[in-house]
Design brief:
Layout (H helix, E strand, L loop, with lengths): L11 E7 L2 E9 L3 E5 L8 E2 L10 H8 L5 E6 L2 E6 L4
């Protein structure tokens, strides 16, 4: 890519918070959809299981373990949709 080429802009930024503390980096979304999940052996998206925080409370651990397949954020012609992919 040449230095003059324009980088495509993202349509969404995802941040993950535990109580009042942001955990991990701001995740820019360039594709039409993004999966946000806790832990999957394969796939792409924003994996919360990869984020580290030294002091994690028991309630946060329990909550994160229930996220499972999480959500899918999708940019569609009529707006942005959130699809629940979790089991709970």
């Amino acid at each position: 890519m040449s230095p003059d080429a324009t980088k495509p802009s993202h349509w969404c930024s995802v941040a993950y918070w535990e109580h009042r503390t942001r955990v991990g980096r701001l995740y820019a979304v360039y594709d039409q959809a993004v999966s946000i999940f806790y832990d999957l052996p394969q796939g792409s998206g924003f994996c919360l299981g990869q984020l580290n925080l030294e002091q994690r409370s028991e309630s946060v651990r329990r909550t994160r373990s229930k996220i499972g397949f999480g959500i899918l954020l999708s940019k569609e012609p009529d707006g942005v949709w959130a699809y629940n992919r979790g089991e709970h």
